[in-house]
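Example 4.3 (complexes with small molecules)
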Amino acid sequence: MKSIYLATVLLVLVSATFAAPNPRYNPTTREKRRRGSSSWSGRRSLQPRDSCPVPEDVAVVAPKANPFVSLSQDEIDSVAMWLHDPAQGLNLTNTSSATISLSDNYIWHVDVLKPNKSDVLSYLDASGVVPRYARVTLIEGGREVPIVGEYSVGPLPISNSTRKEALDNIYNGPNGAKLLWSAGPVDSLRRAAIDSLMNATLAPIADLTNDLLEMAFYGSSDSRSTMIYFMQSPASTDGEKSVFWSPFRRNGMEPWDQPSDLYIQFDITGTDASQWRSMKVVYNLEVYDSVQAFYSAWKAGNVTKTSPPATNIEFLYKNKTGSTRELEDRMAPTVLSLDGNRFKVDKEEQYIEYLGWTFYMRFDYDVGVQFYDIRFRGERIMYELSLQDAIAQYAGNNPFQAGTAYMDRFYGIGAASVRLIPGYDCPYHAAYLNGSYATTNQESYSQINSICIFETDIGTPITRHMNPVWSQATKGSKLIVRMIATVGNYDYLWDYGFYVDGTISVDAHASGYIQANYYRPDDEGRWGPRVAETIAGTLHTHVMNFKADFDLVDEKNSLVKTEIVVENVTQPWFDESFEMMRYNISDVETEDDGLMDLPANGQTMFTVVNKDHTNKWGQPRGYRILPGLSNVVLASKSSPFFRKSGQFAKQPIAVSRQHDSEPASSATLNQNVPDAPLVEFWKFFNGESLVQEDLVAWVNLGMHHYTRSEDIPNTLMSEAHSNIFFAPQNWGDTELTKDLANSVMMYAEGADNEIVIETNGVEPPSCLNLGPEDSLLGVFTVSE
Ligand SMILES: [Cu+2]
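Answer. The structure with copper (II) ion bound is encoded below.
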């Protein structure tokens, strides 16, 4: 086993150098500190003489088996076999069949269906059983009106009582749990057909593309192809048609940043690919009615060539260049738990305990890690905390970027989770968990080490104070559960933080490659600055929606709005009236007021409270929803590309009644149906009471990405950062860190003002090499 080596030179006790008052330690701390060596050998020891052990995972057994387990391979196979049984009448074609076509019915995805909250609570809080169901997505090209439909299949295991039912109960859109086939996922079958269309369109004009773009396309698997195409998302509005624009980029590394100036529109409506066709062309901002018209114009010498994408792509490399900065040959600081981990993980049940916190985790293909039954000191704070979707809306002076509105849930955020890089993505000694889900190839898959768990210093003490008679500070710590997903060009990092004071945080960061615009000087930077030879940044907004299902003590919670208002007041103790602020406290009574903006200057506080449970001071116990850094939402509220599909991203905070029929603010298949989504979020807000009911807060993190040259090669997580806090608000009778032993209290005692340094028996381990500056001696003194 690997250990880290640290010099053993201990805290040097140089009490002789201190004048009276004579400091003393309490007995437990004094003995430890006296075991030190007698001299300080310098800041950096090159001769390790001791080692701090690698913290071991501390075992814990979850109180109950995790009710959110992904499907096993046997379960997936049994569901697939059951669906293929002619008795079901589905006329399914096996996806491995050599003759499968777009007009066949076949399975796209068999995943586990998220169980209802009501069932999970009866299991967690009593002896209920959580029924197990599969969520099945079928591509049904063989129907008279071809569709993609979502169904539940269960209960599992398969038995005579197993049924297949449309999941209409959890989808409130106009078509229920289905969409018209043309708006469905682009699976390998459809991609092959699109590839043929592209080949048929572009190979005949290879002389044109070689001239104007200095690249050509002959099919994705043809080695002569130096060009690559993409599809605009959304590729439909309601599924009646699938018409989209394709950009063309140089084939090779990170094509997102090698765009050309050419865009072609395609119509791929319906299951008969022979009817698919190319439509308009845009090149150098000139619009041509057809590829043929474009080709004729070029032949006639009427097309003005713009720069092809740069062939020198050195700017995209992230290998180290340049000389090393002074002292940067040393390893960067990191967080280490030298005294052993303070959190416990039941890896089997995906259950965690940390300094009063307990929770379960779930993982799925759509969004990755999610949190359930989050409790602090035994009391439930949230039933669920989970990412719902991560979307990005683009802008640009071309039909592709102008029409791009990604919903990454569609591409599988959990499926895009990556194996984390120890020491870089996560601190050394972090604990790791696998993320398990069912792939769209009907395989049960575990992404190794896609979640890391570690405790970190919050960077400040959590509390401190000094006055003439004592000085106190308490260490600030939090547990972080981290996941990173690389969805195409972008890398998203999500941190879920659990603080020692009862605060929960969600942080989102982004890195990876921007999806660049083709650089046009006449754009004058209106959609982003030029960032390399032939590319410009692209103005876009990221929004990530999270579900925070509060159950403060129990499910009966209320939403309170505390506004800071300013008014002119007259008081007998002042001669003149004057302006002063006060609270205006009100309940948000119904869902009609549940879609909320953040008033300017932070002059409103939103709290979820339980009015039936007050603290010692008679205040309803609550948690504050505290927007942190960059809680932005979509700038456009009526863009056609997110008309109804992205309603969750149009206000910073929304609070609705919890219903098992409203489990998510988005849907995996929402991407291509902005006019006919499966989930239409604003329909959740239909006048129901929000007073002492089961409430769900839907909150957004985000970033308007003001792209810059520093996005090349990779966007920086320092600035591409957004967060939110859920913080106790009169939850306790007092603040919740008074029991922490990782605190110091220094005070004077007796007539001689003898200084007492109370560290509650918690000391740096002997392997930690401390210097004289780290001594507590003399920090606090009392003037005589
Ligand atoms: Cu961005």
